[in-house]
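Hi W.,

Here's what went into the run:
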Amino acid sequence: MKKIALTNSQYIMKKGKILRTRQLTDFEKLFEISLEGGERLDHEPGQFIMLSVCGAGEIPISVSSSPSNISSSFEVCVRAVGKVTNALHKLEAGDEIGIRGPFGKGFPIRIFEGNDLLMVAGGLGIAPLRSLIKYVFDNRRDFGKVHILLGCKSPADILFLDEIEEWNQRMDVYYECTVDRAVPEWQGQVGRITTLIPGVHLEPERTFAVVVGPPVMYKFVIKELLAKNIPGRQIMVSFERHMKCGMGKCGHCQIQHVYACQDGPVFNYDEIKYLKESY
Amino acid sequence: MKRPKIAFFDFACCEGCQLQVANIGEPLLEILERIDVVEFREVMSEKWDGPLDVAIVEGSITNQHALDRIKQIRERAAVLVAYGSCATIGGVNGIKNSFDLEDIRRYVYHADYRLFPTAKTRAIHQAVPVDYSVNGCPVNIPEFVDVLKAILLGLPYEVPDYAVCVECKLNENVCMYDRGVTCLGPVTRAGCNSWCINNGNICYGCRGLVSNPNTKGAQEVLRKYRIPEDLLLKKMEMYNMCRELDKNEQT
Amino acid sequence: MKDAQYSVLRKEQFDGFISRLSKLQRVVAPVARGYNNYSFEEVSSGNGISLKYIPTILPPKKYFMPQRETLLEFDTGRGLNSEAVVECEKMTIFGIHTCDLAGIQCLNMVFTERPRDYNYLMHKRKINIIGLECNEYCDEYASCALVNASTPSGGYDLFFTDLGDRFIVHINTQIGENIIESTKFFESAGKSDLEDLTELRAGKRTLFTKEVPVEPRYIPELFDRSYNSKVWDELGERCLACGNCTLVCPTCYCFDIKDEMDLGLKSGRRNRIWDSCQLESFARVAGGENFRKERSLRQKHRYYRKFRYPVEKFSRFFCTGCGRCSRTCMAGIKLKDTLNLLIEEFEETVSTLMEGNY
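Here's what came out:
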């Protein structure tokens, strides 16, 4: 059997160097990565990359930084839950990893422009959403009113606390956070994220809602958003699936007839409301 | 990683799985460059009382003495590997659990039976926490090498939780049921690369059952191939009796 | 139809043809494995080949998309270095039935669609295909007529049809012509050869008829109306989730990708391994959520991937009627039975609606 080098294979990785890491919680870590030769990742908020720790494997990870970032590096926020993520957590600045992508359809920013935004993140959902939030802040005047709602299990699980403090200070954003389980020091709200939505003042016809979180959250949040009369096509969701190839072939991310890796991971509610396997 | 200190231990077993290590052949030399074997009764006389990076344990826990000893080993070892069916699922030693302990003691040891204390057979994970499992009777060397590499890399090793049929199909074997023989491949966890069937034997279920077997569906299969349910159960019990102890813990 | 596109190979020359061809390149063909099982294996003469065989255990997709295949080699010794690779060799597959030709055509569409899969395309480029006609049904599991795969429609370099004492061979490509030329066992086809072929095909049209009572063009709608059918629950109760049905399917192509390190722990490779949507872990994500946890959902997914989802994307069914899934199923889940049940259920619904004067 002859072995031939493939120069056009879609499985070719770019070399990525870890520039900095930051432990966010016990389980989540932020990695700043630069591509070889200072190449920009050139992603859209909401897109994902395939990240390799060679020997452990390759996993899909959404990009957490904004493409509007001045630096050519990008960031990913990773929870240590499996083989590859645990291996990644052991790496340090200077170590090299493999990068493919970006893949998939991100948030339709061009369509958002000129409209109000209601961004709803549950738990680790803030990781992909942070890419959009940062983009919006970098281009703030292109958008109308901006709401950010954040829900976490407990105060210790809140990611990007320092940045959130900044959002909280800004006058051009409505920010609210709730936790399922409070601790004595917790000053903020307690309860499910759905409890924050009724109180938001919004004009449904000119509001785009963006929802990212665990599957169980979608059903309830979307119900609340529809109750606010936001049209289905203006409710954007991003789905987590375990892509193996990123190219609509391996089948792992298939939701009925759509492939989350190519047709998503961002969908609007009208596209997915008939897909029973979606959430 | 510097060469980790590794020791092999055995409990109730035939020690055949350890023998498999000696049978590795040439790759063994390369493996030995990576690890420092400090105790391995089957191949060397040295002993080691100090702390261990990796303890590889063959055999099942069948009495109080064994229980005390495995607890000691666990305390000394940073990583504990259950090695072979007796260790991972109790294996054939588990057959004891289908009998009354007093009866079986008397049956085996006759008049002196009181001199031989016994207990229900346990797999290693039913006695102490286990970090890695190498299933099989005996262990499949390529899988053992994979587990060893995972240990050295500090990565978890996931035993596949699907049926041996998957690997058997990839190897394009003629299905044993087509040959009119009852095979435990459809309910047994893969990872052995369908070793036995590749060599013309049936699967005996030595790697343990898949975690979510379809019992109702399996009965249908028995009907289709006109296999008495009793026969299949007996076949499963050969290696899998200790599974009952896992079930009891869950409830 | 130009006569020049046809040649004839006398049966007594068949062994010589395969022997000669196997000296030029690797030849694989269906070989009997006992217990009415067959598989494509390497051959060096025509004698070992089963000219009458039921679909092989694995379809010829194993040559286009091997069960285990290296996609990438890497070295982490000094930083990260990697190279994409494909391992392939020139070969001819002899004796592919029309169902499996259709299967390869399906895979061609999937892997040629962008983003392209260059490992697959390299294998495809290296493989010559010689088809072999089924003059009669292999067994009761086949449903090739339903999906229009009982007669050839391209997808081969040469196509053999058994006419008793000789094969009539359709030459579809220049590669096929080169095989004919280089082996020198073929005669040109005469009028009677072509007449015999026409007669055989006419006979087949009455022999091979829709195996399931439904117009193929209505199948997508049947599936649209069957998403909540209880048929899926019944399948789920019987299915053992062993993955056999998908692994033997000529149009299933789901895969997993896994890294493997050498003992030195510095270099290794990334492999693609066949996977199955029937396995419980297939649609599970890192957090533990499983989007097709129930066996019924997974069986349903398999059927929709054959009869509904590809229709939109590729304008064809991804079932070739080969019957392998039914033949191999431990639990006796049979594709034709499933379709029949869906049709029955649909007709019951319609008649209930009619009675209600809708």
